[in-house]
Amino acid sequence: MMDRITLPGVPDDDNRTLNGLLEQLDAKGQRNRLRSAYYDMKRVTRLVGSVIPPQYWGLGIVLGWSGKAVDILARRCNLDGFVWPDGDLASLGWGEVWEGNNLGSEVSQGVVSSLIHSTAFVVNTVGGDGEPPALLHFRDATNATGVWNARRRRLDNLLSITGRDGEGKPTALALYLEGRTVVAEQDSSGWSVDVQEHPWGVPAEPLPYRPRLDRPFGSSRISREVMNLQDQATRALIRLEAHSDIYAIPDLWLLGADESIFKNADGTTKAAWQVVMGRIKGVPDDDDATQPRADVKQFPASSPEPHLAALNAFAKMFARATSLPDTAVAITDLANPTSAEAYDASQHELIAEAEGATDDWAPYLRRAAVRALAMANGVTADDIPPEWATIQPRWRDPRFLSRAAQADAGMKQLSAIPWLAETEVGLELLGLDRQQIARALADRRRAQAQQRLTALAAAAQAARQDPVVTGGDAG
């Protein structure tokens, strides 16, 4: 339970809001840390039953399925940039905002955190000296939380923990309120507070994964079902490890021999591995014994197949729960797709999941981008031009198409609408990336400029060679 914080010089209402958000962050903290542990492969499966020796549970065997479920989907949700059909983003300084914030990578990190914890947050701030004119920071749900206003479909506030001590207690924070940001930092003398007013409302947006009416901040991709299936599969893997040591060696029963054959020359008992791995060439007869000659009975080693079958069953159930193809986690009974159509069919659930996720994130990223442009250009929230409403994020196609297939599809579309070939959209349809499109258009402009210069030079040369007749015949 987090201690209450009272910031000096801050109204009581703001302190109540702060502590309410701290309680909300603390209430979700345990589950968020658990999901982080599954993603980072730091979760050790709980011991169940007493059939397997405890030392095998102490090996720390883990599976990375939860991380794989997050990463495979995240890799299909790539932000290529923003587009503005009604204007030129470069004229608003968008290039500096994009590059200065390393926005392509930052959005990808925010996507991963959103999938792990059900949501992440993006915060806008005005840049300082030596910084881009507008900053965008992404915060995960272990260090940020807010209150969602369902009527306005916006955040009423957001708390971001920016520093913690060795015990995990907050030592620095930012509280974003309507038109105000409270920045506080703790040192040996207590809390120091800086309140900054601004004209951009609450400059923060959520990035929810699978939001719904009763869960506006969404649901984690690492669900209870996913965690449970991974635990079951890990236990099957531990049993397989124990089987390899204990049950994979044939079981031998030696009848009629004394213990001397299992002892060293000095009378000490041989280690178990020496007995198992050794080869007994001969056992001496004992005429005084009831059974003078020893008899060896062998029972074949048990097969690990039941463990592998269980592991494979859990893998397939995990794939169903996460909309992954069986090839992502299963280990047997697999058939590779034989055509592009078969490949798409095997991935269609994952592709649909990626498209749905980007659709959910898009409006909030658009708001953050527009707010960043407003900050960079000194425009208040009330004065944002209506034509900026057409600024939208552009996501990469979640289907992994070969360049040949994409170019072929693009040519078919361009043949139906030829004038598209002269636009950036046409080059995108052909499968060119942003860098290639920029280079192609730049080369085209240079070629056109050279052609114009050549034409002007030719016209000037022609004018010098053909004298102009200015008078008639003399009388």
Description of the molecule:
With 475 residues, this protein is of the alpha+beta class. Helix content is 42%, strand content 17%. It is built from 12 helices and 12 strands. The protein has a 5-stranded antiparallel sheet, covered by helices on one side. Helix 6 packs antiparallel against helix 8. The N and C termini lie far apart (115 Å).
Structural class: alpha+beta
What is the CA-atom radius of gyration, in angstroms?
Answer: 34 Å
Please report which band the strand proportion falls in: under 5%, 5-15%, 15-25%, 25-35%, 35-45% or over 45%.
15-25%
Strands in their spatial order, largest beta sheet: 4-5-6-7-8
Shape, please? flat
SSE run: HHHEHHEEEEEEEEHEHEHHEHHH
User: How many H/I helices?
Assistant: 12
In short:
42% of the residues lie in helices and 17% in strands. It contains 12 helices and 12 strands.
Task: Throw out a few tags for this protein.
42% helix, 3-stranded antiparallel beta sheet, 475 residues, 17% strand, alpha+beta, 12 helices, 5-stranded antiparallel beta sheet, flat
List the helices and strands and how they pair.
Layout (H helix, E strand, L loop, with lengths): L11 H28 L14 H4 L7 H10 L4 E5 L10 H7 L2 H15 L1 E8 L7 E7 L3 E6 L4 E11 L5 E8 L2 E8 L2 E8 L6 E5 L15 H23 L4 E5 L16 H6 L17 E5 L5 H17 L18 H37 L15 E4 L7 H14 L7 H6 L4 H32 L10
Antiparallel strand pairs: 1-12, 2-3, 2-9, 4-5, 5-6, 6-7, 7-8, 10-11
